[in-house]
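Appendix B. One record, verbatim.
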Amino acid sequence: MACAASPSPLPVATLPARRRSSTAAVPACHYYPPVVAAPEADHWRKNIPVLATENRVYAIDLIGYGYSDKPNPRLVGLQAAVMEPQTCKGIVLLDISLRMLHISKQPWYGKPFIRSFQNLLRNTVVGKLFFNSVATPESVKNILSQCYHDTSAVTDELVQFILQPGLDPGAVDVFLEFICYSGGPLPEDLLPMVKCPVLVAWGEKDPWEPVELGRAYGSFDAVEDFIVLPNVGHCPQDEAPQLVNPLVESFVKLHS
């Protein structure tokens, strides 16, 4: 997610433990609002230098992501534009989670089994064993190769960027909470409350969040455009920065 923020900063209490900032010398007459990229700073490493030529860019590790603190988490993301609308002039959403495991999207007869499985992962050694099985370079590379259409983008550098924060204290609990999280507001609950313009871009070849289902988000009033990124998987900003960077730049200029 990228957000064109208003010049007033977020309250200090909402900032995570680590953030990258970058800027270039920009003439005052060409100043554009700050751009906030989330949820994991390193995943925007191909975008920051380009966007920073005309904007101050903050790439943030949201709470629970990257090298930020890892308390018992609850996802926020799009909620920032609803809860603090004065801080956001616009939002770019990339392949957002469809939340298909949300409890409201499950048949009544499946809900008890989902809760039982979540409790098994959260409250027994099974969850930690599962985490240990995926928190390896080989597993991370295999998982990324599934969601990237261009697997040549799955480099050893990327694997380390994703893996290393997962070795921090508390990372196991964050991981298990993330994969077990089936409550809270859905994107379709939040978008009607968003007051700023929204651009949604989606990888055509995303195997995890199918573009056919994602198109529904283009119907909300706040969404100005829904753009399909050809031959791109689940992480467009990293897999195809040559497509994403111009979109973010033009969107920021339009709404500055």
